[in-house]
Design a protein that fits this description.
CATH class of the largest domain: Mainly Alpha
Number of helices: 15
Strand content: 5-15%
Order of helices and strands: EEEEEHHHHHHHHHEEEHEEHHHHH
Distance between the termini: 89 Å
Strand order of the largest sheet: 3-4-5
Number of domains: 3
CATH superfamily of the largest domain: Intergrase catalytic core
CATH architecture of the largest domain: Orthogonal Bundle
Length: 419
């Protein structure tokens, strides 16, 4: 509706005169629509009717952290939907149960925890999960890409999808979360380029020998298990003495998480190092370290889960803290030797080295058996075992690579290098 002026022109009609600001510093203006409004990042936003400036100001303060970053704020009422905080809490509770049962490793638990923390920091704990739209995931992907390389981004994206699959599978939300095409994984080309730029995640034989020479007896035994058996952090940390036959020189130890059987012949160097390390092993402080081959100086497993009670939002909560003491300890050793210049090197690189060099045996079936790789092929279904002779041949190829390239005397020519 409109009204006429004396000049005959038609002026815009308003239901009543626009009010003045409640006080000079009030951060919004009275819009002709009858609401308090503010322009943020070039876009006009409305926060409430003229009659209730206090409610409009409260809504502005609540939504401001999201709007100033160009994000969509959560709905005013989250009681009718499921909040992101609730989903993350229930998801982590489920993963905690799997951690205690040994179905996932402490490292996997920590990665899920960090991903949940990133989601809560970005979207806010009150954001309704059923309110998330494809463009929201696109913006979140861009934020991740600013601090991650392609491989880390791919892994984080996969964890996000696992987290948001949880509420639909457990009937917390009626429909699956829709990511659209904004939350795609990095392309294979980008992943290959990133890997090429980073270089191979591999130690040379000379580097491993330098590491062994500098390591203390406990670390030396763990490193030898890494390159002799393809063991990773969790493998050496959870290796029981009962699984190691030092007299016959074999270790029979299924992978802790997947329970895939592994049988490996130990080198003489590994047997000797294990005898020394076990003899020097500290007394365990509790039952968690009883019977293990390796313990820290404090008598605790090298990879473990700590639980402690914390106060959050005025409530007591049990916080799960996964600890991998092998990561910083091995990292300091690499830095001391100046071997940490290449990206991605760590204790797990020994497992990469075993797979790579063991493949030179031309018996990939035996290599996979030692590594504990899952094989769903028809051949694996019918194959009942891999002979000890084949397993021995693989570890001997790796041993020859590691030790036969060592200089036979201090007079080795300066121009000579390891193959």
């Amino acid at each position: 509706m409109s009204k006429s002026t004396r000049s005959g022109k038609r002026a815009k009609w308003t239901p009543h005169e626009k009010p003045d600001k409640p006080y000079p510093g009030f951060p919004m203006f009275a819009h002709p629509s009858g609401q308090w409004a503010k322009k943020i990042r070039g876009r006009l936003h409305y926060f409430g009717v003229w009659a209730d400036p206090e409610a409009a100001l409260e809504r502005l303060n609540r939504e401001w952290p999201c709007l100033k970053e160009g994000k969509t704020p959560p709905p005013i009422d989250v009681s009718e939907g499921v909040s992101l905080e609730k989903v993350c809490n229930e998801f982590m509770a489920a993963k905690e149960a799997k951690l205690n049962e040994g179905d996932i490793s402490p490292r996997s638990y920590r990665d899920y925890y960090e991903t949940c923390r990133r989601l809560l920091d970005y979207f806010g704990k009150d954001r309704r999960v059923d309110d998330l739209r494809p463009e929201d995931f696109g913006d979140f992907r861009k934020a991740l890409a600013e601090t991650m390389g392609p491989t880390s981004l791919k892994n984080a994206r996969n964890r996000v999808r696992i987290i948001f699959k949880f509420p639909h599978d457990n009937r917390l939300i009626p429909n699956p979360v829709n990511y659209g095409q904004y939350f795609d994984r990095p392309s294979a080309r980008v992943l290959r380029r990133s890997r090429n730029e980073a270089g191979p995640r591999l130690f040379s034989a000379k580097e491993i020998r330098r590491i062994l020479a500098e390591a203390d007896p406990t670390m030396r035994a763990m490193i030898l298990l890494g390159i002799n058996c393809g063991f990773g952090n969790n493998d050496v940390a959870r290796l029981p003495q009962s699984r190691v036959d030092l007299d016959k020189g074999w270790v029979d130890f299924p992978r802790p998480r997947t329970k895939i059987p592994r049988r490996v012949l130990l080198w003489p160097e590994t047997i000797e190092a294990l005898r020394v390390a076990i003899a020097r092993r500290p007394r365990p402080v509790d039952g968690s370290g009883r019977g293990l081959c390796f313990l820290t100086k404090q008598g605790r497993p090298w990879v473990r889960v700590n639980q402690r009670t914390v106060i959050e939002d005025g409530k007591e909560k049990l916080k799960i803290v996964p600890i991998d003491a092998l990561v910083p300890r091995f990292g300091r050793l690499l830095r001391k030797l100046g071997i940490n210049g290449r990206k991605g090197l760590g204790f797990y690189t020994l497992r990469h080295a075993f797979e790579t060099i063991g493949g030179e045996s031309k018996d990939q079936v035996a290599v996979d058996a030692i590594m504990g790789h899952a094989d769903s092929s028809m051949a694996a279904i019918y194959r009942e075992e891999v002979s000890d002779a084949r397993l021995k041949a693989v570890v001997e190829v790796v041993r020859k690579w590691l030790f036969d390239s060592a200089p036979s005397s201090p007079e080795k020519k300066a121009g000579e290098r390891d193959e």
